[in-house]
Amino acid sequence: YAASNAAYVNIDTSFDPEWVRSRFGRGLAVREGYDLVVILDRDMNEAFSYRPESGPTDLTLVSVLSPEVARLSTDIRQRYVTGLVTARNGDTYFSGKMKDVSAVTEVQIGERIAIVAVMAIIPDPGGIPMRRSVPHVLVAVKLIDAQALADMLSSLSLTNLFLEQTIPAGMNGAAIRDE
């Protein structure tokens, strides 16, 4: 969703609210089951926000923009700028990898845990005019409840499942308590 020429053109080059609402609201949030989808502009202000009608009303950008999510957004934006190169013909393109411009973390919202994905809006495959500037950023939020856990577990290989008392460096995790 975030890595496409169409997304870059309709968000970064010339913001088209109806296209964004269709692609990231109805397309991403509704079809993929996210509880909140937000696009942050170059100044880290909310350019677009969509919460499905059935979504929790207390779920907002403020509730998910933890220090970790803000840091990830800033790091992703900086790695994107660092990865911009100019070819001999004058075209600009991103030379990095997807892992440079995307990340996932968890955020505690009250008594609930949410998985938060952060990704730069970048052209793919490219070949279009690009700015030498920080990108817009997509923030997609999925609250974890019993159904979400069941959906995740149904596609998880239990062969690779292990339990740790602490979260290893470089990995995401959430404490699970038996109450």
Q: Can you walk me through this structure?
A:
This protein is α+β, with helices and mostly antiparallel strands and 179 residues long. The chain is built from five helices and seven strands. The protein has helices spanning 5-13, 17-32, 61-64, 67-83, 146-154, and strands at 36-40, 46-50, 84-86, 92-94, 102-109, 112-120, 137-144. The strands form two sheets. Strands 2-1-7-6-5 form a five-stranded antiparallel β-sheet. It has a two-stranded antiparallel ribbon with strand order 3-4. A hairpin with a 2-residue loop joins strand 5 (102-109) and strand 6. It is globular, with a radius of gyration of 17 Å. The termini are far apart.
Helix content: 25-40%
Largest sheet: 5 strands, antiparallel
Shape, per Cα inertia axes = globular
Name the average pLDDT. 85
Strand order of the largest sheet: 2-1-7-6-5
In percent, how much strand structure appears in the residues?
Answer: 15-25%
Number of helices: 5
Cα Rg: 17 Å
- Listing every helix as H and every strand as E from the N terminus to the C terminus, the arrangement reads HHEEHHEEEEEH
Structural class: alpha+beta
| N/C terminus separation | 38 Å
Q: What is the number of beta strands?
A: 7
Low-confidence stretches: none
Index terms:
alpha+beta; 179 residues; 5 helices; five-stranded antiparallel β-sheet
Blueprint of the fold:
Elements: H1 5-13, H2 17-32, E1 36-40, E2 46-50, H3 61-64, H4 67-83, E3 84-86, E4 92-94, E5 102-109, E6 112-120, E7 137-144, H5 146-154
Antiparallel strand pairs: 1-2, 1-7, 3-4, 5-6, 6-7
